[in-house]
Amino acid sequence: MSAYNSGKCRCQYCRAAFAVYRAKRRGVDGKDNPRQPRQRDTDGHIPNDWFRRHVWYPALEAAKLGIHVRIHDLRHAHASWLLAGGADLQVVKERLGHASIATTEKYLHTLDDADETALDAFTKTRYRSR
């Protein structure tokens, strides 16, 4: 199981988001004071329902996109754009927390110009050393 799936991602962005989550849960005395009981251990992990209510839905409303966007849609777009920009497949795999490169390869189907991007990367590398 990957860090992403087990809720143990330790990247700077997840740590910062968790700090905000913990601060909102704590009372003035510094002790946990949730409005409703936890459904699972949240040590280092932000529960999906809390994230949706306090972060995702307010962000969608503020963006006024006019369409419903799921968190997974954003994740998929992020991975596809990284790959379209020439990011290394292994780097994207690690960024997404995939255990297998085969899972990350599924994002390649959305890249119409992947062959052209690969050729551009090759050309840049080839002529850089001259």
TrEMBL record:
Gene Ontology molecular function: any one: DNA binding
Asked if the record carries the keyword Nucleotidyltransferase, the reply is no
Q: Quick check: keyword Cell membrane in the entry?
A: no
Entry keyword set: DNA recombination
| Entry's Gene Ontology BP terms | DNA integration; DNA recombination
Q: Which domain of life is it from?
A: Bacteria
Boundaries of every Tyr recombinase domain copy:
1-120
Q: What is this protein called?
A: Tyr recombinase domain-containing protein
Species of the source: Planobispora siamensis
Taxonomy of the source species: Bacteria, Bacillati, Actinomycetota, Actinomycetes, Streptosporangiales
